[in-house]
Fold 3-oxoacyl-ACP reductase FabG.
Amino acid sequence: MSTDRVVLVTGGNRGIGRAIAERFVAAGYRVAVTARSGEGPAGTLTVRADVTDAAAVDAAFTEVENALGPVEIVVANAGITKDTLLLRMTEDDFDSVVATNLGGAFRVVKRASKGMLRAKWGRVVLISSVVGLYGSAGQINYAASKSALVGFARSLTRELGGRGITANVVAPGFIETDMTAELSADTQAEYKKNIPAGRFATADEVAGVVAWIASDDAAYISGAVIPVDGGLGMGH
């Protein structure tokens, strides 16, 4: 497996994005992360970028290209939530989540695809969520943005599949992060009852799947949705 390829992970300063960046660094890749604040893990190049701003995305890519070379693997992970029930959800609650989670993936992948087409090789990995296809009360904006990534990856596969470029979706379930740690013990137990594996995942378990789907071993997989959810979303 070639490990000196250039990887860009958006939202790589914390949570799943950080674990993904760490996994690629450990495997010897040249890794950059985008972050609105904070820094990526040791061994990464951190660039500032707001994925809702195309000019900022372009500038971030230029910075990475100048420092490391063309981006060959892009992991669109940056995402936000603004959870509330439909009748309370404001226009901004909906628009800002879609602009970041779906629009951000569009801007980042569009910019990355130019170099991939020149190289005739590329890996696009879109980080979705079990919620995208399973649904979740109070998350209409988030679930809609995450399920949309499936159509994105499949359309991209039809456009670029013959150029050595794959596009896949990784859909994590409940992960041990700062967000789940804030849930009460009762709430956590309730969630775990619905997960056949009976536990939350570690961020590193998601990172391992992302690293594999970006590798040469997965060259013939494209347009797939790979759940990393302990069986929670089976059949969705």
Observations:
- Residues 6-175+206-223 form a domain with the Rossmann fold fold (CATH 3.40.50.720).
- The longest strand covers residues 165-172.
- The mean pLDDT is 95.
- Strands lie at 6-10, 30-35, 44-48, 73-76, 122-127, 165-172, 225-228.
